[in-house]
Design brief:
- With about 400 residues, the chain is an alpha/beta fold.
- The chain folds into three domains: about 60 residues, OB fold (Dihydrolipoamide Acetyltransferase, E2P) (Beta Barrel), CATH 2.40.50; about 190 residues, Vaccinia Virus protein VP39 (Rossmann fold); about 100 residues.
- Helices cover about 20% and strands about 30% of the residues.
- It is built from eight helices and 24 strands.
- The chain has an eight-stranded mixed β-sheet, with helices on both faces. Strands 1-5-6-4-3-2 form a six-stranded mixed β-sheet.
- Strand 23 and strand 24 form a beta hairpin.
- Helix 2 runs parallel beside helix 8 and helix 7 crosses helix 8.
- The chain binds S-adenosylmethionine (SAM).
- The site of S-adenosylmethionine has 19 residues, from helix 5 and strand 19.
Length: about 400
């Protein structure tokens, strides 16, 4: 085989040089025709033989057949289920120290290319460390009625007996509980498991007609079941249905990063604090002094109900609404933590109409972060700093905290 063979088609095996890792976690190479090729389970700098599994005019996808010249950063995945095909942790083949650096590079690239803001400093923020264990997981039911995670790029479910990144309070349930699936269940049933690291409370929510059997008495069940967590010394109520950060350490680190980014704007002297996409009130409850006006805007009823409980005693309004449809009011600070797709034009326009002198944007997708940064710049904001946190070790997932002023 030569590097120069061209006209790749599905099934062809070619030698590729992985230039860098990209958003989504794949490596990027170019074939002999100059076409971009995305290759999964690789590290930057490697030479691999890869089989093309999809070929389009502008790009192709390939899977590794053999690693010809491995990167110094390649390691044996520490979890045996990754070897079985579990797609839950797609970066376990990269040394732990190199994972965070790679995430910073991906965000830098997104701010330079997508946001057209190459001058903005993108820095490495904190990492939860590789022993911060997930307190919320969503699992699927295998064909033989056990729990597992999806195979990479597939709907197939790989049974999991032990998980490197799962909190032991829920891992115990995965090990011991049986699953009964109702006859009228459609597709692959899914189950969410959650625990509080500080409280030890735990819950299970079956999204479809799957029931976990033999659960210990302490486990609460159903969409409305509640567990409590403690972050920055504040006790928070979190319903099974509400969003919550991946682990207690992740929440602590994010609260700290947002606090630094919002420095000087949390005391209300410039106006109220808008906690956009506020969830159960993580930022309002831990960062906004109780006598400072906070306005939490959140679309989920379950999360708003939790926020009511978590912000009792605070000077806070909780508005159940899509943020894009909320009527903007004057503010001193907007903290916006949207879902993976980001803010988009409509939400950026709402932020701009608050006239807030400071915006702290929390993004869980590097390209969405960069797209929103460009929209905020076009709306009159200047980017100040971008910090890349590693809250999801062993995966490509990234958390970006960006600060803007005007
Ligand atoms: C990434 S979570 C952040 C929650 C909270 N800031 C936290 O850290 O726990 C995004 C939240 O936005 C909510 N959400 C999604 N789309 C929304 C929209 N269009 N308007 C308002 N809230 C939305 C979700 O229900 C979820 O609670």
């Amino acid at each position: 085989m030569t590097d120069a063979e061209s006209s790749a088609q599905v099934g062809a095996i070619r030698r590729l040089h992985i230039e860098r890792l990209v958003a989504g976690g794949d490596g990027m190479a170019r074939d002999a025709d100059g076409r971009v090729v995305f290759v999964e389970s690789v590290a930057a700098g490697e030479h691999v033989d890869a089989e093309f599994v999809e070929v389009k005019r502008d790009f192709a996808r390939a899977r590794v057949v053999s690693v010809v010249a491995p990167s110094m950063e390649r390691v044996q995945p520490p979890c045996r289920h990754v070897v079985d095909g579990c797609g839950g942790c797609n970066w376990q083949h990269i040394a732990t120290t190199a994972q965070h650096d790679a995430k910073v590079e991906i965000v830098r690239e997104a701010f330079a290319r997508t946001a057209r803001l190459p001058e903005v400093p993108v820095t490495r923020g904190g990492s939860v460390g590789h022993d911060a264990l997930r307190t919320t997981v969503r699992m699927a039911v295998t064909a033989d009625g056990r729990l597992g995670f999806r195979r990479g790029a597939s709907h197939e479910v790989v049974n999991i007996e032990s998980c490197l990144v799962m909190h032991p309070r829920i891992a115990e349930l995965v090990e011991t509980a049986g699953v009964r699936v109702g006859k009228d269940a459609h597709g692959t049933p899914e189950v969410s498991l959650r625990c509080g690291d500080a409280t030890g409370e735990r819950g299970v929510w079956s999204h479809d007609r799957a029931r976990l059997l033999g659960l210990p008495d302490d486990v609460v069940t159903g969409a409305g079941a509640v567990v409590h967590e403690e972050v920055a010394g504040v006790r928070l109520r979190v319903s099974m249905e509400s969003f919550f950060q991946a682990s207690r350490q992740a929440a602590e680190l994010l609260v700290d990063a947002v606090s630094r980014a919002a420095d000087g704007c949390l005391d209300g002297s410039e106006g109220p604090v808008i906690d956009a996409y506020g969830g159960v009130g993580l930022f309002s409850a831990t960062l906004v002094p109780i006598d400072v006006q906070a306005i939490l805007v959140e679309s989920s009823k379950a999360a708003c109900d939790d926020a009511y409980a978590n912000l009792r005693g605070h000077t806070a309004d909780i508005v159940q609404s899509r943020f894009e449809q909320w009527k903007p009011q004057s503010a001193g600070l907007v903290i916006a933590d949207p879902a993976r797709s980001g803010l988009g034009k409509a939400a950026v326009s709402v932020i701009a109409h608050t006239d807030a002198p400071r915006v702290v944007l929390v993004s869980c997708d590097p390209v969405a972060a960069a797209r929103d940064a460009r929209l905020l710049v076009d709306a009159g904001y200047s980017p100040d700093a971008v910090e890349v946190l590693d809250l999801f070790p062993h995966t490509h997932h990234v958390e970006v905290v960006s600060t803007f002023r005007r």
